[in-house]
Amino acid sequence: MTRKRTYALLAAEPSGDLQAAALVPHLRRLDPDAEFIGIGGKHLESEGVELLCDTSWWGSIGATEVLTRLPRIIVEYYIFRFKYARRNPDVTVMIDSPAVFMRLGKFTRAHNLKTVYYFPPSAWSDNPKRMREIADRVTGVVATFRRSWETYKKANVPVQYFGHPMVDVVKKKPRETVLKELGLKEGRYITLLPGSRQQEVRLMTPILLEAARLLTARDPELTFLLPAASPKVYDKLQPLVGDKALLYNGKAQEMLSISELAIMTSGSVSLEAAFLDCPMVLGYRFNRFDAALGRFLIRTGILKIKHFALPNLVLDETILPELLQEEVTPERLFEEAKHLLPGGSKREKMLADLARVRKALGEEPVVPRVAEYVHQVATAGA
Fold it and tell me: Which of 154, 185, 344, 361 is the one with CA 20 to 30 A from 61?
């Protein structure tokens, strides 16, 4: 009797949970009798994956919060690793989160377990030492940016590139359909996106709302939309937002598709905005401890970052300003935003650059091809 194959899908934060879950239906089609285990959250669970550890809260905190909750994270990690090793999966897919998965990669290599690193850290593609670590610890890498694929390939890392999975999932609906879904009338809209992590919401929301007030004073026709990243974030935002913006539970893609502009915290949503042809102003604020830690890592050369905005990373050039820490003020966001509204001096250039980003991210289907590669790794030598 043939043994059922076991696939392990590992995600340490919500965005990884979503990308891991997207693979499951395609892997089931290729391997109908397979079993699926993993770590992650609601998306993997909804696909019928047996969760060995719920990590949905890991990615919602910053470095300061990690320190205070480190004992719990360490205990959960080792409990997961014990359960994981007993299941002896045929292939393990690790998504992003190098702080967790590079340590696990050392363990999987020592136990001859096949691993695929999906969404490898882009910042590491400029660090030869880090790339060697990846090559030593995994069976294969699936890069999601062409530039990352090229640099990993030059470093002799076994790397594949099929495009970015967002190509498959972000689809622009007709404007009339979206307005009806959101219960809105025809008008001029701007989307505000403060982020999904606790510290992002706390630090960025007041700044975005004040920038919105400045824009409204300049142009009273504007209406601001704010999609909460989760029900928990929605509850936190309600008292902050009040009547300053229309608050929704989710629906970020729909809002971006009808907006003249988005003002956002840096993250994967910037690629969604690019796909939906929505110009954006982007920034990021850390708490003081995280900011000091980041400056130390950059100053000492431990962390090398040329860009942090994903559209800039895709093209390896600055097509939109990256505002960081003290630069992220309502006044600065207002100044950048007014040039990107219809008739603004920078709008047409950004729209042309966003078209280049879309082209650089490849063509669909992406996720089915990633699943085929994972299946090949699982069955190799079987």
Answer: 361
